[in-house]
Amino acid sequence: MTLHDKNDALAAEMMAIGTAAREAARPLREADDAVKTKALMEAARAIRDHKTEILAANARDLKAAKVNNMPAPMQDRLALNDARIEAMAKGVEEVAAQPDPNGRELKRWARPNGLDIARVSTPIGVIGIIYESRPNVTADAGAIALKAGNVAILRGGSDSLLSSGAIHAALVEGLKGAGLPEAAIQYVKNPDRAAVGLMLEGLSGAIDLIVPRGGKGLTGRVMREARVPVLAHLEGICHVYVHEKADLTMARNVVVNAKMRRTSICGAAESLLLDRGVLESHGLPILQDLAEAGCEIRGDEAVRALFPAAKPASEEDWQTEYLDAIISVRVVDGLEAAIRHIEHYGSHHTDSILTDDETAAEMFLNALDSAIVLWNASTQFADGGEFGMGAEIGIGTGKLHARGPVGVEQLTTFKYVVRGTGQTRP
């Protein structure tokens, strides 16, 4: 097969996926909540029933990843085990239990001419979801899109192709069990990167929205090349600021959790700001805790003077999402300096202040324009499940449509329903 023939074959394959998705959009939009809930409960059951097949597929993906020298944090994202599969199934059940986000009357009013106008929530339509190593995103994304009444076209990374394919098969089993079109959740099995390009072009108008979930390389490409709307965050450069009135015990616990609980997630803290007023009393034990937990510390001059084991931080460190056991640490002169640092270097994802001073906390929460701001809590709570929203497919950091965890409700739009009695416009 020539390159031209190969490209034609891929284009035909992707266009067929787009056509099937568009045809499935109406029956899914019209499906009542009981049917969608049944599909999701059946899918959760199928994930548990097919655990052995999913783990076998994942083992093959992991073996290939090791041969290809995939970095350890990425292997952690790729790996599945009994606990993670159970978490996947529970996540699907939690989505199923949520209220139907569609058909909600967001606002209603009457005009002097008698027209009755309502703004009503409705599905977006067909959503293309592009992600990397985490195969659990297949379950999360498929479930969230379905509950919101949207058709999903899923494209996982080639390194998780077998794992995601096995999980997708369980989702399709759920769709069939509820009598919904199998094309309501499709998985792009072709590993050719050109398939992503075709999705970004919109598959001849079939795709209404693209949601990327992955690193800077993937998200950057999506945002550069997409010809359809994108809902995404580019980076998770999350900060924890230890204010001069922070409780020491709490600060030590929260900082280590924010950085080290799972270093590979977008809500992991990447920069620590220490108030000069508590540099020795709080800074030293916190830095010691991080080092003992296996974290590499990169600090400014004041940090290195206090903690000589720290490596010198460069300008690049303040704007790096490590996704690894590395943290950049800077000493700041008060709350305003901390806010300025975050505004300059942050990615508007998630930022936290640790303090017992309510006035300082409220100033921090109001001043920062991040999608998620926290007071006395770990940045690792930047997650739809922790917000009580069930599974999520990412954190939106843009200013339009959805910000923060992107869950079921965030994958809806609205339309205006106008009821009249024969009115005509003069």
Short description:
The chain is α/β, with parallel strands linked by helices and 426 residues long. The protein is 43% helix and 19% strand. The strands form 4 sheets. Strands 10-9-11-8-7-12-13 form a 7-stranded parallel β-sheet, with helices on both faces. A 4-stranded parallel β-sheet has the order 5-4-3-6, sandwiched between helices.
Secondary-structure blueprint of this entry?
Elements: H1 3-30, H2 33-49, H3 51-67, H4 72-78, H5 82-97, E1 105-110, E2 116-123, E3 126-131, H6 136-147, E4 151-155, H7 161-177, E5 185-187, H8 194-200, E6 209-213, H9 216-225, E7 238-242, H10 248-260, E8 269-275, H11 279-292, E9 296-299, H12 301-306, E10 311-312, E11 326-332, H13 335-345, E12 350-354, H14 358-367, E13 372-375, E14 395-396, E15 404-405, E16 412-419
Parallel strand pairs: 3-4, 3-6, 4-5, 7-8, 7-12, 8-11, 9-10, 9-11, 12-13
Antiparallel strand pairs: 1-2, 2-16, 14-15
Helix pairs in contact: 1-8, 2-5, 2-7, 3-7, 5-6, 6-7, 10-11
